[in-house]
Write the structure tokens for this entry.
Amino acid sequence: MTVHEEQTLLQTPLFDAHRGSNAKFSPFAGWNMPIQYAGVLPEVKAVRQGVGLFDVSHMGRVRVRGRDAFAYLQHLTVNDVARLPQSGGASQYSLLCREAGGIIDDIIVYRLAANEFIVVVNASNREKDLGWMRSHAAAFSDLILEDETRETALIAVQGPKAIEMVDQLSDRDVTVMPRFGLDETVVAGIPTLAARTGYTGEDGVELFCRADAAADLWKVLTGAGGVPCGLGARDTLRLEAGLPLFGHEMDEHTHPYEARLGWVVRLQKEADFLGKNALKAINDSPKKKTLVGLAMEGRAIPREGYTIFTGNQGTDAIGYVTSGTFSPTLGKGVAMARIEAAYSERETPVDVLVRDTRHSAKVARLPFYKNV
Amino acid sequence: MSNVPAEFKYSKSHEWIKIEGDTAVIGITDHAQEELGDIVYVELPTVGRVLSVDDVFGTVESVKAVSELYSPLSGEVVEVNDSLIGSEATINDTPYETGWLIKVRLKDPSEMDTLLDDAGYKSEIGE
């Protein structure tokens, strides 16, 4: 049974490389992905102190081009694409929202040229997003959407020493690239598109390359000292950095203002965009629920779905944990949680129900940790 | 290949059991700690608690996973390994020695016959 399931899972171009490094695999969004290599703790440490490498080739990559590409993305996404220079070389975090305001996915829009973009979407949402994107393409005559996920690879190089390491392998000066910048860069002879983005709370780049060059690039990066890291470490790092994950902090039943993502929605942008009217109305009305950080007072670990009560053994349930973990960097349990807005002030005491016992926590500043 | 000492008994839920007189020492197997990864938190019962077979007697957690502990035998908890609190990695390092979890005074020694021997456990975990 298991064998059969594994055969139907997708593999990234780096699958054999991971197997050669004794990675532990697990199905994730239809892909057979490395969850860990040496272990979550040493991998988190590598990213916080040196350089970690992540194969994130499972994430969807959709090239959007044509004379209408800019207008199309302005219509499709809630952030303002006009903030990216026409000459390209920049990227922005954004959202796809339904007309009613629910979040379809969170994405990054990379602008390569005036009318050429790459949109990176969550692996778990790729088919849904492609359907949504195609269904809104008809009104734009000069527009080409290409799913390049299987023809390309994406490797995240993250950590305080990541930029220096990549710079020594590159033909370009990567150190001058601004945060969210983007540049065509040859790394150890391999053509890549390097973006100064990531999902760990550390500086670093994400390297797009052709699928058939991925194994060579991975080898060069590990040879230069990059430590292979799995999705386990990635999830822990992004939570420490207060970064949301689709399906946890947000979903189609959640709007950006209750996911700490109101800043992404540019209600003032000229273009009419999908969800604009609903989001404007939501923004104008009082906020009921919001996303906060929680830090445990004791040693118990908050996990997704655990109920949150008012503090000091209060009787009212006020929300639930959307993501929780032991933070290796802070040495204690931390979580993101959606709770009633009235309790969202920093330092507010709350209780987290861990199995059958209440454990004290406080509303904490997000991110818990950030070094970029 | 994980370590499965011949002198212990095992449960299908990956606890090991060592008999010392009328007391059973209980921990989790090398295979279990390997599957969990780096253990960062453990919850154990209080001394005096009476356990029946398959009762949840505690929890071990790694960064990413929560795993419940099931009592393979019935009896009263007479000792708890408090030295693990704050040093949970001991369970990873020496699961059959200083990584033990609890000691239980056996209520019914014949329950030992329901447990797996090393060969049975090895086949259970596919080794």
Remarks:
- The radius of gyration of chain A is 21 Å.
- DSSP finds nine helices and 19 strands in chain A.
- Chain A touches chain B through 18 residues (CB under 8 Å).
- The CA atoms of residues 25 and 34 of chain A lie 4 Å apart.
